[in-house]
Amino acid sequence: MPASSPSSHSPTLPGLSPPTHADVIAAAGRLKGHAVVTPLLESPLLNDQLGGRLLVKAEVLQRTGSFKFRGAFNRISQIPEVERANGVVAFSSGNHAQGVAAAARMLGIKATIVMPSDAPAIKIANTRAWGAEVVLYDRWTEDREAIGARISSETGATLVRPYDDPHVMAGQGTIGLELADQADAAGATLDAVLAPCGGGGMISGIALALSGRLPETKIFAVEPEGFDDTRRSLVAGQRLANTPGASSFCDALLAATPGILTFAVNGEHLAGGFAVSDAEVGRAMAVARDHFKLVVEPGGAVALAAVIAGKVAIEGRTLAVVCSGGNVDPAVYQRALSEFGI
Amino acid sequence: MPASSPSSHSPTLPGLSPPTHADVIAAAGRLKGHAVVTPLLESPLLNDQLGGRLLVKAEVLQRTGSFKFRGAFNRISQIPEVERANGVVAFSSGNHAQGVAAAARMLGIKATIVMPSDAPAIKIANTRAWGAEVVLYDRWTEDREAIGARISSETGATLVRPYDDPHVMAGQGTIGLELADQADAAGATLDAVLAPCGGGGMISGIALALSGRLPETKIFAVEPEGFDDTRRSLVAGQRLANTPGASSFCDALLAATPGILTFAVNGEHLAGGFAVSDAEVGRAMAVARDHFKLVVEPGGAVALAAVIAGKVAIEGRTLAVVCSGGNVDPAVYQRALSEFGI
């Protein structure tokens, strides 16, 4: 299949359909008291520089250091009692791994996580520290979905997909509900919301959350350059894959194609997408450090990068961005800031 | 006067007496909707390592990047209408400067800030960005209090002291009220609270806040080595000065002696103090980065450092620390983490 051909005109996942706004509301109920209601931050000095109002949803402060805990907990907490003894299995480059491991530990369920051997060391170490068994694989020669499916069929463990799962999408969508409440409390009317996009789980959940609340707010996906499959798919009106061979230090956002369920939502609800370079991401990481006092990993900083790099107009407008994760190896963080940030 | 002799047995500030618990409650009312209710963060993985429960009050997320906004706003918002046109003046190494500048801007009052010429560049730049006029002085040859008093007498501007002011102390104390509420919501019973201490404004306010709420909770001041005047004064039962000549990169905590009003409170309410080295602070800055995703300046990290360095027992106990500020020059931050943190 050529890289940029549609992978399917109307693909489906057997037995699964996208969640609804009501599912996001229900997820918020399940997460209450378990997930952190992360703050919506603002820097008046940065606003002065930008000539508009920028609100930052600080998901780096979420349990496990990224938004992924929300979807994982919403999914795992709904596994029927009789199936829990078989555990859960997931494949992930790191943030979903930690989210699943933490949610499973909180719910007393064994977790096995399939991770690429070149994932950030901090992500592998923390996944193990949460009590999960980590199975490493080679990103270039092995198929993580096949490994996950094999473990699931051998052990009966429930597979917790990173994005193409309605409960996971609904869980991530709780970010959007909080964002709407918090913007309201801050007296802000959101012209647009931008969020990082890998497989599209978070942005689709946010879109569903806001569709019932803020129908006038435009929602944009932001991806690394070379991995802007969702941006291009939105333009084409069908799921396109990335051209192999690109590289980016945004390890969390390297999905090859939009998800099936996520694109069903995103194709309908998103206003478009933006792609940002590693240098633009590095500068955004420095802005997060200096103006918001937040440590943001590369993949977590792409939406902020789109604003700082001027991809979207902010003058006289109010934008919100999600800074979605902060799990970056110290050496990578230091190098990114030294190279691009100062 | 020898450096370690008492500066006075029972000194007073004319017309001023320390605030009460009720004053802290009143301050919280004034700050509502103006200051950020900063989150109380927790890292289960770090708790596992420490064998206890550690809660982090993230004042780096406060408006202007440090707790100082609270006291400044509580003070300035009480200036009578007829005196507001004369403006305010303050002396500060940087965080109080920004707090006063931001509060003054929000209240439509002109601010003049006297800052040492070697203050962190980010602190000077941000103070100007908040609209204040900055007057630089030489820390080694000039007397900032005299410069502040002169400007005040020439212009009629109200002097906003950095800590020895009951309204400033009460404002900082609102941290303690939030901490008590948030610990309660987290099901935590606090064995002890540790906070950074320069002149002692924040720790005294927290002590007053908790005295009516959590009388069993021990409260400790943490200072840089060589600047542990409050720790030694608590032992001696009277205000002692630091021995000149010490150095520390904790620029926010270099006060020469405890304040008069602050020590009146601290002498009665604190359980003691700890001193930490620059290396211990650097490691705490790395812990804040890796476990809490927070950028903490050296002076803001001393209380966390006391816990991480094992100065206070945490095994089987619940401690809270205030990370009080995040205004660190990028190069200093990078260097501290490279030298001590990774």
From TrEMBL, chains A, B:
Family matches, as InterPro entries: Ser/Thr_deHydtase_PyrdxlP-BS, TrpB-like_PALP, TrpB-like_PALP_sf
Keyword Lyase: yes
Cofactor(s) for this UniProt protein: Mg(2+); Ca(2+); Mn(2+); pyridoxal 5'-phosphate
Domain of life: Bacteria
Keywords: Lyase, Magnesium, Pyridoxal phosphate
EC number: 4.3.1.19
CDD domains tied to this protein: Thr-dehyd
Pfam families per record: PALP (PF00291)
Top-rank EC class of the record's enzyme: lyase
GO molecular function: ATP binding; L-serine ammonia-lyase activity; magnesium ion binding; pyridoxal phosphate binding; serine racemase activity; threonine deaminase activity; threonine racemase activity
Gene3D superfamilies, sorted: 3.40.50.1100
Record has Lyase as a keyword: yes
Tryptophan synthase beta chain-like PALP domain mapped to chain residues: 34-323
BP GO annotations: D-serine biosynthetic process
Family in the record: Belongs to the serine/threonine dehydratase family.
Protein's name according to its UniProt entry: Serine/threonine dehydratase
Organism: Skermanella stibiiresistens SB22
